[in-house]
Write a structure and sequence with these properties.
The complex is a heterotrimer of chains A (about 325), B (about 900) and C (about 210).
Chain A lengths: L5 E2 L8 H27 L4 H25 L17 H21 L6 H6 L1 H27 L11 H24 L4 H31 L4 H8 L4 H22 L4 H23 L6 E3 L2 E6 L16
Antiparallel strand pairs in A: 1-3, 2-3
Helix pairs in contact in A: 1-2, 1-5, 1-6, 1-10, 2-3, 2-6, 3-5, 5-6, 6-7, 6-10, 7-8, 7-9, 8-9, 9-10
Chain B lengths: L11 E7 L8 E7 L2 E7 L12 H4 L2 H5 L8 E3 L12 E3 L2 H19 L3 E5 L4 H15 L4 E2 L2 H4 L3 H11 L3 E4 L6 E5 L11 H14 L4 E3 L5 H5 L2 E3 L6 H15 L5 H7 L5 E2 L16 E4 L4 E4 L23 E3 L2 E5 H8 L5 H8 L3 H15 L4 E6 L2 E6 L3 E5 L1 H4 L4 H14 L9 E4 L18 E2 L5 E2 L42 H7 L8 E5 L3 H4 L3 H8 L5 E6 L4 H6 L2 E4 L15 H4 L7 E4 L14 H12 L2 H15 L20 H13 L5 H7 L1 E4 L3 H4 L14 H17 L23 H4 L7 E6 L13 H9 L6 E4 H6 L7 E5 L5 E9 L6 E5 L41 E7 L1
Parallel strand pairs in B: 6-7, 6-23, 9-10, 9-19, 10-11, 23-24, 24-25, 28-32, 29-31
Antiparallel strand pairs in B: 1-2, 2-3, 4-5, 4-25, 8-20, 12-16, 13-14, 15-16, 17-18, 21-22, 26-27, 28-33, 29-32, 30-31, 30-33
Helix pairs in contact in B: 4-21, 4-22, 6-15, 9-12, 9-13, 9-15, 12-13, 21-22
Chain C lengths: L3 E6 L8 H10 L9 E7 L6 E7 L8 H5 L5 E3 L5 E3 L9 H5 L6 E3 L14 H13 L4 E3 L5 H5 L5 H5 L5 E5 L6 H8 L15 E4 L3
Parallel strand pairs in C: 1-9
Antiparallel strand pairs in C: 1-8, 2-3, 4-5, 6-7
The structure holds ligand MGD (2 copies), iron/sulfur cluster (SF4) (5 copies) and molybdenum atom.
């Protein structure tokens, strides 16, 4: 029997910068997906929404990749990520992102003068580009889950639910981004209402996915310490306040209230913040599974950190 | 940066020398690259370590270069002293420091040189035995102590081991011992006197299937590695051991009759009236009963003695009643056998918390594994010889000895070995280090072969101090500030000097002088002894002037030092002998003898100066330099195995001065011949020569016996009672119970065991973490970091269930308070690996010194709970009790 | 070509941290970086509880996850099977750190002193800083390399040499006559986390 208080080492290499990247890639990809859907399903009436979605994607993902670059130990060598594209999700991911950004940029560009013509006119070309882009947006959104899921020692990440969760959150936060801008551009109330309702449904679904994800993590022995860290440990405030309250509960309530204006903006901003917190929570909630050998569990006991030495008095010299 | 010229040189060298981060004296090799010390490794040429090294030794570059090291002489400018007082140290020149010191010392010399008190750290044991002792003799003061050293780790242990094994400590013959029994010691598992070599030996033993039983209140390293961990209540090992002896003698009827008859005083006849030996009228030698000739004989009559195992002798009586000169008398062994009957397993269970069935079973295991009667043949200089094979060994150290029953507890544990003949023979309990040797053949030095006295009992030839453990000194009217002269069995004590009425006591005991100057060499006695306030207020503040050789400004210097002198650390100085006297930290076993030296791997940085050199300088300024040389010559005899020859003697007549390097060189040439001086030895850092097997397993090659019946304690008890009565008839100052001076071992409870207040429901004690030495290494950031890796070092270890009962959780901040109202703060770490009524503390943590920021504020300061008063003193050895009854509550 | 591996005998090991410190000193690793490490485990309920130490280091896996996830090829295997990081190719993405099932990798962004901030570096720290920056580099992933430099000088790995329990044996797994091959075969040698399929080359012998 292992002693209950044994706690593994906490993942500390990927923190806010990577969370920001995961989040922005999510928002970008989600917004693009929403934009394409709006175009495909809504037609001309939804053109503005579609454009906002597509327009949002490139800057979000681009800024995200800057965060990614900033996290690198030697950003100047970043070009090397393509030296070995076969086996690494980072290499694959960067390829996906780049293709996505190119497609989305083309898509964006074609809606801007002087290129605006062809796509606006040629609906099928636009739809084709949109679907192709959406495929890569989808990959952009879920590959981050696969990337984390490849880590053998962090059981919290090793689940097929993670890409699903990231996907749902991406769509929701993408939509929220669109709503904020759309509202400020004076979009029709009915359209806003519809988007709010759709987002509310997605949020409910996200609550469900998140609950299953966390429950599963708790149920699995390997990831239980992570689940505890998230639910009641040092990460709990990000989870409960950031993810659950700001990211899910408040936006959901506000959306259900159906009010527009500042309230909608606040709700959506909180929702976006929640999306960031979600990525952060999952990153730093990760705990390396204790090593098991010869019947023992080997890890470090979780205990208060001793003070980092402050400058003492130096002997006179 | 005051780096020497060496820093400009392109170089990459490994210099063999000796570690000094604990007293184990491992041979090491130190790498110097371009003038900077960068790496440390074990020195394969040195038997002490044989190329292996411990975590602390490896971390020593940080000790050498710590920016918090003291680099210049410092003077206190705040006249107020005490804990928490800012000393307001300022830098002064060496000249000024020496002038100040020498002026004070001259004044002291004129008034009464005995006012000088030397305090030293055990961690630099080699300097204590030579420089410190030499200077004390030259200056003319008998007053010294090594603070926690000895009183925590040896007054009982070293005394008893000296009597029974002519050694400072004992250790299983790991190479052949099938059943080592560890009573409260980490020997072979990270601490003890030869930590590294013993760890190798113990690991080899595990590998070939030796099975250890460890008695320890917590699951220490040695308990984790043992085949069986027996959680035992602190301070009760003596009862446990006597229980085992009882099972052997009275339940199982097992003992090694040959051994007891010819190698102990078990057959000596004792008269019932006063417990004394029956003695031969003429020679005064004790008598034994010859069962063949049916008459008494003196103990060493050739017909009844067997020196070597294959010698023939008449059978002698161990049991029965015999008439000698009209007196009905009985052999001491029979008295012992009767005496231990009261330690029934059930009685012992009540004391120790160890189930009676376990005690019976372990007794049986000892009996079976001892293989009484079995022999092996070893190759000696005189050809193959048969000796007994006894592959069991009960050994002990700091844990079991740190109690008011210290002396008897140590003896009781060792008694297990002597009952089955497992002492200093193949597979048994051996004197540690190599206690016996005829020296390097060409010179015959160091010579340390023990010999019997008139009573036939074992006498040390080589010892760490002048006063050998046997025969006992006769109690005399005191001259020392701790009244030590009155007490025949101790090296020093704390209960006198820590008494709030110390000076009154000195009046009563007619000590004509008072403490004046203290020289401190390293020890941080404010932390290493006991309650810091008591040590500081009752003792240290009584000195008018204190100067201290140190590496750091520790809590001691902050509280009381007037001058701090920047000493070199072990990497910056010469030490002539570190693995000798071999009874201290030389490995036991069949490996070679090795005389290790210390040599600087780097010139002293800044204004650091070697303690040894400074002491010579002080001697010179005091005009006692040649007295000092003479004293060094004199202390060499007992410590380093024989007198210095005229050729190499340090000059005693004032005609010549020596550098410290020369002193080292002379000692080496004297011991090993002119061709083996410093120039030769420095190449390998060690001089080695082969060990004879008969020196390893020396028991059946030496004509001495050891006592199992302590007749001479009766006299000592009477003498000590009498002398105390002379000065202090009403026992106002000394109320110790001298009745413990008696011939047979017993167990006595500590205050911990008799505490009546049910609130104080836990026993607190400490243990050694492998990553720390006492109070010293906490400032080393490598070791600090590594200690944090160990899950149980910095917290107060507590059993999960006990904690749950009190609503205490992992990481909670708590107070731990003793019945005297002293309390300490720390945080709790939970475990299953501790007896549920105990709390365990590692090392000496909880530093508060401003000048040791890495150490500061980490862990709990256990020693603040240690009371250094009479109730916590062992009357037999004056050892300190270091377990306490406590309560714990959330802070 | 040799295929280097190590055996750690948990029966011999008594958890003394010398290996971890020897590695630290030999490789001048900065604070918080333990290429060799000693973990602690406890099992069972009093009085039948047991403690055991588990010394860990890079397993020099045959099928290393760290190498699989490395996007740049900075992580590579030498001919004798040692998994190394080419500091000039590494971009410091830390993916390998997160993916190594054994926690054997450390990404070090800035070299830090062991002493409180604001003090001038001691000569030893100057030296360790230089050594680290030259050999291991900053902003990149680092790990045990089975003491490649020491072995070039004909020495054993530092952790092996220091171990007073002689619990660690270094050798060639391909040589059936080598001590480590013999120990693994005859003393129930096992590897950590065999289920992840990385095929470690550090083997352990059972604690009792
Ligand atoms: N709680 C608790 N108390 C204990 C112990 C314990 O384990 N726990 N251990 C006890 C035992 S057995 C002992 S022996 C004592 C030891 O107590 P001390 O003899 O006081 O020894 P250390 O605590 O090792 O401290 C050694 C001191 O010497 C200094 N020093 C080291 N090297 C040199 C040198 O070369 N020159 C000079 N001038 N100074 C040097 C160090 O800076 C340090 O301050 O403590 C006892 N007290
Ligand atoms: N790593 C390291 N090595 C050292 C030192 C150091 O500080 N650190 N100091 C050196 C010095 S000065 C000394 S004196 C030696 C000491 O060497 P040892 O005496 O071998 O070392 P300790 O760890 O103090 O051993 C005490 C053990 O006894 C247990 N114990 C405590 N009280 C009791 C008791 O009442 N009964 C029983 N059965 N067990 C008890 C403790 O849990 C601990 O496991 O080590 C020397 N070597
Ligand atoms: S056991 Fe003591 S002397 Fe030996 S290397 Fe460790 S600290 Fe140094
Ligand atoms: S040095 Fe050896 S005994 Fe010590 S922890 Fe490492 S492997 Fe174990
Ligand atoms: S142990 Fe980790 S770092 Fe080492 S080779 Fe295997 S996967 Fe890579
Ligand atoms: S940190 Fe360096 S070695 Fe590790 S995966 Fe990234 S590029 Fe490869
Ligand atoms: S082989 Fe060398 S680098 Fe690897 S853990 Fe051991 S000492 Fe460190
Ligand atoms: Mo000691």
């Amino acid at each position: 029997m292992g002693s209950a208080k044994l706690d593994g080492q906490v993942q500390s290499d990927w923190r806010w910068l990577i969370a920001a990247y995961l989040f922005l890639a999510g928002v970008g990809g989600g917004a693009y997906l929403a934009g394409v859907v709006a175009d495909l399903a809504g037609g001309a009436e939804w053109m503005l929404v579609s454009k906002i979605g597509v327009f949002l994607s490139v800057p979000c993902v681009l800024i995200g990749t800057f965060f990614l670059l900033a996290d690198l130990g030697t950003p100047t060598h970043a070009w090397r990520v393509w030296m070995k594209p076969g086996t690494s999700w980072i290499a694959r991911g960067t390829i996906i992102i780049v293709i996505f950004m190119i497609l989305a940029a083309v898509h964006t560009a074609f809606w801007i003068w002087p290129f605006a013509g062809p796509l606006e006119v040629n609906e099928s070309a636009r739809h084709f580009l949109g679907i192709l882009g959406a495929l890569f947006a989808f990959l952009t959104v879920i590959y981050t889950g696969l990337l984390l899921g490849y880590s053998q020692p962090i059981a919290l990440w090793r689940t097929a639910l993670l890409p699903v969760l990231f996907f749902v959150s991406a769509i929701s936060t993408g939509l929220m981004g669109i709503m904020i801008i759309a509202q400020s551009m004076g979009i029709a109330v009915a359209q806003l209402d519809l988007m709010e309702n759709i987002d509310a449904v997605i949020l409910v679904f996200e609550v469900f996915v998140l609950a299953v994800y966390v429950y599963n993590a708790y149920r699995t022995l390997e990831s239980r310490p992570s689940a505890q860290r998230i639910l009641s440990g040092p990460v709990a405030s990000y989870f409960w306040l950031g993810v659950v309250v700001c990211g899910l509960a408040i936006p959901l309530i506000l959306e259900l209230m159906g009010r527009h204006g500042a309230i909608l903006t606040i709700g959506a901003l909180l929702g976006l913040f929640g999306g960031l917190c979600l990525r952060f929570t999952i990153l730093v909630g990760g705990i390396y599974t204790p090593m098991r050998a010869a019947g023992f569990e080997f890890a470090r006991i979780h205990r208060p950190k001793d003070p980092i030495p402050a400058m003492g008095k130096l002997p006179p010299s | 940066m005051a780096l020497t010229n060496a820093s400009k040189v392109k170089e990459d060298v490994w210099i063999p020398t000796c570690c000094g981060q604990c007293y184990c004296m491992c041979g090491i090799k130190v790498r110097r690259q371009d003038g900077v010390v960068t790496e440390v490794e074990g020195n394969p040429d040195a038997p002490t370590g044989r190329g292996k090294i411990c975590v602390k030794g490896l971390a020593s570059p940080h000790l050498l270069y710590d920016p918090y090291r003291v680099n210049y002489p410092l003077k206190r400018t705040n006249p107020e002293k005490g804990i928490g007082v800012d000393p307001k140290f300022v830098r002064i020149s060496w000249e000024e420091a020496m002038d100040l010191i020498v002026a004070k010392m001259k004044a002291c010399q004129e008034k009464d040189s005995r006012g000088l008190y030397f305090q030293a750290t055990t961690t630099q044991a080699s300097e204590i035995r030579y420089g410190v002792t030499g200077f004390m003799r030259a200056f003319g003061t008998p007053n010294y102590w090594v603070s926690g050293g000895g009183l925590h780790c040896g007054n009982g242990a070293h005394f008893m081991n000296g009597i029974m094994h002519v050694a400072w400590s004992i250790i299983p013959d790991f190479a052949h011992c099938r059943l080592p029994l560890n009573f409260g010691c980490s020997k072979g598992h990270g601490a003890g006197h030869v930590a590294v070599q013993n760890a190798t030996q113990a690991a080899d033993a595990r590998a070939w299937g030796s099975r250890t039983i460890t008695f320890d209140p917590m699951q220490s390293a040695q308990a984790s590695k043992a085949h069986e961990w027996v959680p035992i209540r602190v301070g009760t090992d003596g009862a446990m051991a006597l229980g085992l002896v009882n099972v052997l003698l009275n339940d199982l009827g097992v003992w090694d009759a040959e051994y007891l008859k010819y190698k102990t005083n078990g057959p000596y006849l004792v008269r019932p009236s006063d417990g004394r030996y029956m003695r031969d009228k003429e020679t005064k030698k004790p008598l034994v009963w010859d069962l063949v000739d049916k008459r008494p004989k003196v103990h060493n009559d050739p017909s009844v003695t067997r020196v070597q195992y294959e010698d023939q002798a008449h059978d002698v009586a161990l049991l029965g009643e015999y008439e000698v000169d009209g007196v009905q008398c009985r052999p001491g062994f029979e008295l012992l056998k009767e005496h231990v009957k009261k330690y029934t397993p059930e009685y012992v269970e009540g004391i120790t918390f160890v189930p009676a069935s376990t005690i019976r079973r372990i007794g049986k295991q000892i009996a079976e594994n001892a293989e009484i009667g079995a022999t092996v043949t070893i190759e000696t200089d005189e050809g193959p010889k048969k000796i007994p094979k006894r592959p069991i060994a009960a050994h002990f150290f700091r844990g079991s000895q740190g109690h008011v029953n210290s002396g008897w507890t140590c003896l009781s544990i060792d008694m297990i070995n002597h009952m089955v003949g497992a002492a200093d023979t193949w597979g048994g309990a051996m004197g540690l280090g190599a206690a016996v040797g005829a020296g390097y053949k060409p010179t015959g030095k160091p010579y340390q072969i023990p010999y019997p006295d008139n009573d036939g009992l074992l006498m040390c030839r080589a010892w760490v101090y002048d006063h050998v453990p046997y025969p006992l000194r006769k109690p005399k009217p005191p001259t020392r500030l701790d009244l030590h002269d009155m007490f025949p069995t101790s090296i020093y004590n704390a209960f006198t000097i820590m008494n709030p009425k110390w000076f009154e006591m000195l009046d009563v005991f007619k000590i004509p002088y008072r403490p004046d100057i203290m020289i401190n060499f390293g020890s941080n006695s404010v932390m290493t002894m006991g309650n810091a306030e008591i040590v500081t207020e009752n003792f240290l503040k009584k000195f008018k002037f204190i100067f201290s050789f140190q590496l750091y400004i520790t809590e001691f210097e902050e509280a009381v030092a007037d001058i701090v002198l920047p000493d070199t650390c072990f990497l910056e100085r010469y030490t002539p002998a570190v693995s000798f006297p071999s009874t201290f930290s030389h490995p036991t076993g069949e490996d070679d003898w090795g005389w290790t030296i210390r040599q600087p791997v780097i010139e002293p940085m800044y204004e650091r100066r070697d303690f040894n050199v400074v002491m010579m300088d002080i001697s010179k300024r005091l005009g006692i330099l040649h007295k000092y040389y003479k004293a060094l010559n004199d202390v060499t005899v007992v410590r380093y195995g024989g007198a210095m020859s005229d050729e190499y003697k340090l000059c005693e007549d004032g005609s010549e001065e020596h550098t410290w390097e020369e002193v080292v060189d002379r000692m080496l040439k004297d011991r090993f011949g002119p061709e083996h001086g410093l120039e030769h030895v420095r190449k390998k850092g060690v001089f080695t020569w082969p060990k004879r097997k008969e020196d390893v397993y020396w028991k059946w090659f030496n004509p001495s016996r050891v006592p199992i019946y302590f007749e001479y304690f009766i006299d000592a008890g009477e003498q000590i009672t009498e002398i105390c009565r002379q000065f202090d008839p009403e026992k106002k100052y000394i109320g110790l119970d001298w009745s413990v001076f008696k011939p047979l071992a017993d167990w006595y409870p500590c205050p911990t065991h008799t505490e009546k207040n049910p609130e104080f429901d836990l026993h607190a004690f400490y243990w050694r973490a492998v990553t720390q030495t006492n109070s010293m290494t906490q400032q080393n950031p490598y070791l600090d970091e590594m200690s944090q890796e160990d899950t149980i070092v910095f917290g107060i270890q507590m059993h999960s269930r006990t904690a749950a009962g009190k609503g205490i959780k992992e990481g909670d901040l708590v107070w731990v308070e003793n019945p005297e109202g002293k309390k300490i703060k720390g945080w709790v770490t939970l475990s299953e690996g501790i007896e549920p009524s105990h709390l365990a503390f590692a090392a000496i943590l909880g530093h508060w010194g401003e000048y040791m920021p890495i150490a500061k504020g980490k862990g709990a300061f256990f020693n603040d709970l240690v009371m250094m008063d009479e109730p916590h003193t062992d009357p037999l050895t004056l050892n300190q009790d270091i377990c306490c009854r406590v309560k714990i509550y959330k802070a | 070509m040799a295929r280097y591996g190590m055996v750690i005998d948990l029966n011999r090991c008594y958890g003394c941290y010398a290996c971890a410190m020897a590695c630290k000193v030999a490789n001048r690793t900065p604070p918080g970086v333990f290429w060799a490490r000693v973990l602690r485990g406890e099992m069972g309920v009093f009085p039948n509880s047991v403690r055991q130490a588990l010394p860990v280091l890079c397993n020099q896996c045959e099928e290393p996850d760290c190498m699989k996830v490395c996007p740049t090829g900075a992580t590579y295997k030498t001919d004798d099977g040692i998994v190394r990081v080419d500091k000039d190719k590494c971009i410091g993405c830390a993916y390998c750190v997160i993916a190594c099932p054994y926690g054997a990798r450390y990404k070090v962004d800035d070299w830090k002193s062991y002493f409180p901030e604001g003090l001038p570096l001691s000569p030893y720290e100057e030296h360790t800083k230089q050594y680290w920056e030259q050999k291991s580099g900053l902003g990149v992933s680092t790990k045990c390399d089975f003491c490649i430099d020491r072995r070039a000088e004909g020495k054993e790995p530092a952790c092996v040499q220091a171990c007073s329990a002689k619990a660690r044996v270094f050798g060639d797994l391909d040589d059936p006559e080598s001590e480590i091959s013999y120990l693994i075969k005859t003393k129930r040698g096992f590897v950590l986390r065999p289920e992840v399929g990385t095929e470690p080359k550090v083997y352990y012998l059972p604690p009792r």
